[in-house]
TrEMBL record:
This is R-spondin-3. Residues 116-170 form the Spondin-like TSP1 domain. It is found in: Secreted. The gene is Rspo3. Activator of the canonical Wnt signaling pathway by acting as a ligand for LGR4-6 receptors, which acts as a key regulator of angiogenesis. Upon binding to LGR4-6 (LGR4, LGR5 or LGR6), LGR4-6 associate with phosphorylated LRP6 and frizzled receptors that are activated by extracellular Wnt receptors, triggering the canonical Wnt signaling pathway to increase expression of target genes. Also regulates the canonical Wnt/beta-catenin-dependent pathway and non-canonical Wnt signaling by acting as an inhibitor of ZNRF3, an important regulator of the Wnt signaling pathway. One of its GO terms (cellular component) is extracellular region. GO terms for biological process: positive regulation of non-canonical Wnt signaling pathway; Wnt signaling pathway.
Length: 243
C-alpha cells in the first residue's frame, strides 16, 4: 500500500488518500469523481447524483455521466428527464417532437395529439320565445351536447355545443300566474260568501215561518169561536096562506 493510501477512511470509502479522497468504496456504494475547481475528489454514495447513472461491476460500482442534454438517465443512451429546452421521447432528448406528436411544456415530453370529443346531441327543447312557450307563433328550439374530451394544444378544436332552429307553434294566450291565481281566490271567496248568505237567509226564513205558525196557534187557543149568523134569506121566506 502506498504511504499516501489509508484504509481507515470515513464516508463509505474502503480506501482513500489525503489528496484524492476515496479511491474505492465499500460494498454496494457507488464511486464517483466530483470536481472541485481544478481538482477531482473521489466520493462514495448510495445512489448516483443528478446527471449520472450507475453501473455495477464485480470489483467496483461506478457513476457515469449522462449525455449533455440529459438531466437524469437510466443508461447513457436512455434519458428519464431532459434539461431545459429539450423534450423527452422514448428515452431521448429532442429539440423538436416528431410528426404526429406535440411538445408538452408542462412535463417537457413529446405526447400524442388529443382531439376534441363531444357527446351526442340532446333532444330539441320546446319551442320558445323570450323564455315563454305561449303568446307567439314563431319561436326557436335548442339542443345541446357536452364536451367529453378537451383537445390538446395541436388537437382539433371543439365544435359548437349549442344549436338553434326556427319553429312554429299554434298561437295561444298566456295566462298570468299571479292574475289567474288571484281570480280563482276571489271566485272561491265570493262563492263561499254567497253560500253563507243563502244559508243565513234560509235560516231566517225558517225561523220567521215557525214564529208565525206558533203565533197563529196561540191566537186560535185564546179567542172564542164565533157563532154562525142566521141566513136572512131563509128567515124572510114567504109563508103559504092559501089554506
Amino acid at each position: 500500500v502506498h504511504p499516501n493510501v489509508s484504509q481507515g477512511c470515513q464516508g463509505g470509502c474502503a480506501t482513500c488518500s489525503d489528496y484524492n479522497g476515496c479511491l474505492s468504496c465499500k460494498p454496494r456504494l457507488f464511486f464517483v469523481l466530483e470536481r472541485i475547481g481544478m481538482k477531482q475528489i473521489g466520493v462514495c454514495l448510495s445512489s448516483c447524483p443528478s446527471g449520472y447513472y450507475g453501473t455495477r461491476y464485480p470489483d467496483i460500482n461506478k457513476c457515469a455521466k449522462c449525455k449533455a442534454d440529459c438531466d437524469t438517465c437510466f443508461t447513457r443512451n436512455f434519458c428519464t428527464k431532459c434539461k431545459s429546452g429539450f423534450y423527452l421521447y422514448s428515452g431521448k432528448c429532442l429539440e423538436k417532437c416528431p410528426d404526429g406528436l406535440e411538445a408538452n411544456n408542462h412535463t417537457m415530453e413529446c405526447t400524442s395529439i388529443v382531439h376534441c370529443e363531444t357527446s351526442e346531441w340532446s333532444p330539441w327543447s320546446p319551442c320558445m320565445k323570450k323564455g315563454k312557450t305561449c303568446g307567439f307563433k314563431r319561436g326557436n328550439e335548442v339542443r345541446v351536447r357536452e364536451i367529453v374530451q378537451h383537445p390538446s394544444a395541436r388537437g382539433n378544436p371543439c365544435p359548437a355545443t349549442t344549436e338553434s332552429r326556427k319553429c312554429i307553434v299554434q298561437r295561444k294566450r298566456c295566462q298570468k300566474e299571479g292574475k289567474g291565481k288571484k281570480n280563482r281566490e276571489e271566485k272561491r271567496k265570493k262563492s263561499t260568501k254567497d253560500e253563507s248568505k243563502e244559508t243565513r237567509q234560509e235560516s231566517k226564513g225558517r225561523a220567521a215561518r215557525r214564529q208565525n205558525r206558533e203565533q197563529r196557534e196561540s191566537n186560535n187557543k185564546t179567542q172564542p169561536k164565533k157563532r154562525k149568523a142566521p141566513n136572512k134569506e131563509q128567515d124572510l121566506a114567504p109563508v103559504d096562506t092559501a089554506h
